[in-house]
């Protein structure tokens, strides 16, 4: 197998990146020549290699894939691309005999459009221009949303800095820890969690500094002081409630204060956001009171409502070894939040889906469920079950 980057003379890196996938070398060469004038073209000869190319070179503006290939077929590949690179436009390039399958893929949302094989040069170029334009629009909207939301929340955060500097500094420490935990848990880049970390502290605007100091030191509060602290999440929800596209952020902040989930429950992103932020806030409070990293983590683990997978990530981040882990062999569908993979989760074609040492989150399990719909997974996998205070570990169950 080989991967090549085709560039016409004088081409520059500002041209959109397009990946074409086909198991016939002559078809790849033809497509590369047809598209090379307007795009930087990468080629791959099967689905597994295509995913490796995307991992190495970054998201493409468009992926053009044949249907019938050895191993992973075109539908499976484009569904994987949809899951891992949602802003990449997906095009199925296949013969008329596969038209019914192609139409079904378009209707399911996994494919943007279908091109009959072989496609005429003008039709192919026009289709890819449309696909690139769709990708660019999605990226522009995402960038605008990201900048608008971050700017709005940062402006509110600036009010906290002016009105209550100690609370602002505490919020900054919590936000930093949340970002580090998201990195360990492979949740980095999810702006909803990062914004929720800042938003969760906005209610401190209304709380006297003396009351916040008592909270951080674990001192008892008067009824009025406790009421002002309990109102913090509601203040944040009121401040952010009219900002568009903030539903997940608001759900995370609401969940921190024990607010009920909606009629459809909470998404995996919201559950992970609540778990990470709750852990970070608890750790910051304990460290402020003079606890060492070891004692702070141990104290968090003693709580009935702690989140083992986030605590495991916190241990890794702070270099604190767990007291005890139980390693056992489980089927992929039996994996649970908080387990740490001892070995890779792989598809039957050998493709690594989730690497070893990953601590599983709700979002990761959702991702595995999606993978299982597209490719067959290898069963079973070794996983470490984190130690939980007061719970006797089960015996090692062996391995296949």
UniProtKB/TrEMBL annotation:
Residues 17-132 form the Response regulatory domain. It comes from Actinoplanes oblitus. Transmembrane segments: none annotated. The modification 4-aspartylphosphate is found at residue 66. It comes from the Bacteria. Keywords: Phosphoprotein. Pfam families: HD_5, Response_reg. This is Response regulator. InterPro entries: Bact_response_regulator (IPR050595), CheY-like_superfamily (IPR011006), Sig_transdc_resp-reg_receiver (IPR001789). The keyword Phosphoprotein applies.
């Amino acid at each position: 197998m080989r991967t090549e980057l085709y560039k016409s003379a004088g081409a520059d890196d500002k041209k959109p990146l397009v990946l074409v996938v086909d198991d016939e070398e002559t078809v790849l060469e033809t497509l590369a020549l047809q598209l090379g004038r307007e795009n930087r073209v990468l080629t791959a000869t099967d689905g597994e290699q295509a995913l490796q190319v995307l991992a190495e070179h970054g998201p493409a503006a468009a992926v053009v894939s044949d249907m019938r290939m050895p191993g992973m077929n075109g539908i499976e590949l484009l569904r994987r691309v949809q899951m891992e690179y949602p802003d990449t436009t997906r095009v199925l390039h296949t013969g008329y005999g596969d038209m019914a399958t192609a139409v079904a893929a378009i209707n399911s949302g996994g494919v943007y459009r279908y091109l009959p094989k072989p496609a005429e040069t003008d039709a192919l170029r026009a289709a890819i221009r449309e696909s690139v334009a769709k990708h660019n629009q999605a990226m522009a909207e995402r960038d605008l949303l990201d900048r608008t939301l971050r700017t709005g929340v940062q402006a509110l955060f600036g009010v906290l800095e002016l009105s209550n500097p100690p609370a602002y500094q505490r919020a900054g420490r919590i936000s930093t820890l949340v970002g580090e935990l998201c990195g360990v848990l492979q949740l980095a880049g999810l702006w909803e969690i990062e914004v929720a970390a800042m938003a969760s502290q906005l209610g401190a605007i209304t709380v006297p500094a003396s009351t916040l100091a008592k909270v951080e030191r674990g001192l008892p509060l008067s009824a009025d002081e406790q009421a002002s602290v309990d109102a913090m999440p509601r203040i944040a929800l009121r401040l952010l409630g009219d900002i568009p596209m903030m539903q997940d952020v608001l759900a995370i902040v609401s969940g921190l204060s024990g607010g009920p989930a909606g009629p459809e429950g909470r998404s995996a992103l919201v559950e992970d956001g609540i778990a990470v932020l709750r852990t970070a806030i608890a750790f910051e409070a304990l460290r402020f009171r003079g606890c060492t990293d070891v004692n702070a983590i141990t104290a968090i683990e003693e709580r009935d409502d702690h989140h083992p997978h986030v605590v495991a990530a916190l241990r890794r981040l702070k270099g604190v070894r767990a007291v005890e882990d139980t390693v056992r062999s489980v089927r992929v569908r039996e994996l649970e939040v908080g387990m740490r993979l001892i070995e890779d989760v792989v598809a039957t074609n050998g493709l690594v889906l989730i690497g070893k040492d990953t601590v599983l989150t709700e979002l990761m399990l959702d991702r595995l469920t999606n993978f299982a719909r597209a490719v067959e997974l290898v069963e079973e996998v070794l996983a470490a079950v984190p130690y939980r205070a007061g719970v006797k570990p089960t015996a090692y169950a062996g391995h296949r």
